[in-house]
Structure prediction request, 424 residues.
Amino acid sequence: MSQAGPEERESGPAAAGAAGVSRRRMLGFSGASLLVGAAAGAGLDHVASAAEKREPAGAAVAFHGPHQAGIATPVQDRLHFAAFDVITDDRAKLVRMLKEWTAAAAAMTAGRPVGQGAVGGSAVAPPDDTGEAEGLPPSRLTLTIGFGATLFEKDGKDRFGLKARRPPALVDLPHFPGDRLDPDRGGGDIAVQACADDPQVAVHAVRNLARIGFGVVAVRWSQLGFGKTSSTTPDAQTPRNLFGFKDGTENIAGTEAGPLGAHVWAAGGDGSDWMAGGSYLVARRIRMHIETWDRTSLREQQDVFGRDKGEGAPAGGAKERDKVVLARLKPDAHVRLAHPDSNGGARILRRGYSFTDGSDGLGRLEAGLFFIAFQRDPRTGFIKIQQSLATDALNEYIQHVGSGVYACPPGVRQGGHWGDTLFT
Prediction:
């Protein structure tokens, strides 16, 4: 889309245990399967080599490292995204919870239960682990955390002594043409992105964090996703969105150190030293008008995107990865407006998922794209590209209904915890 839509392929705001594929990979939740993110991080950036990409399903992804997993790592099949509100004013309790979350995340991404597990503790106390992932492999689970602007300041109040540490790049998104944002599907003090190849593993991870955080945080909103709509491994088959078009052809690859450094990873000189090695996450829930699209001619569909629906070749080309010649695309074609050459070279790393949440009560599918993009600075990434997409022909078929922006800190070092660079 647009770089906030299902298809932005030009830069975009655009595996289960030894016994074989888990039966749970076939399950969907609320009509949607879950995502799960990342491949093993043998390298500093959690980037998978060709050998790692051939690992059997169920492999574990390294949790510790200079960058959080779930950003540049190979995209998994399922997603459970959750945003939390902090319901305490006690900074010490919040930091203690983040430490407990970190220990739990390290265990779950390695395929281990939380604490003493679901059955190993006292019979007269609640178990340390909820237990629904008992016996399941790690399924490439990754957990990525981000902090929203309201954690730093809310209603003019410096809640945890963090107001002065809010990064300049953690901005509130402007209103874009066509936005119809539901306040109950956006914002939040803390966001957690759980990606995995088994939906039950992803759900288990978020459920355990919510349980651990009881009394400190409460779930504000969440989204389940299936069928990744973009990839960080361009040598693999390009996924398709719910409009049937290949998505993410020109997405930044997890192995491209240069583009990652220029467009994805924050640097100490960007204005917030504690964010060095981190990234900024923009999430947008995009409703796709499936029924209207399905009554649109193939020619118009291809003109809207600027690509061939079968092969994925750009207009005037023969193969998916042929060079995009902007002059060959219609002025309002999605690919043309989202292309880096139309946006001063702006690029983002996309990790979106499809979703279906039943029907809307009028016989129409409640379905679309849960758009996720990481970037070094939303002001020069998502915002710039989304403003360019104001005249996108695709806007007739989509609508942005949920939104969130979060500062994702660098990865956790051994002995550290989520957010330690911010709170220390």
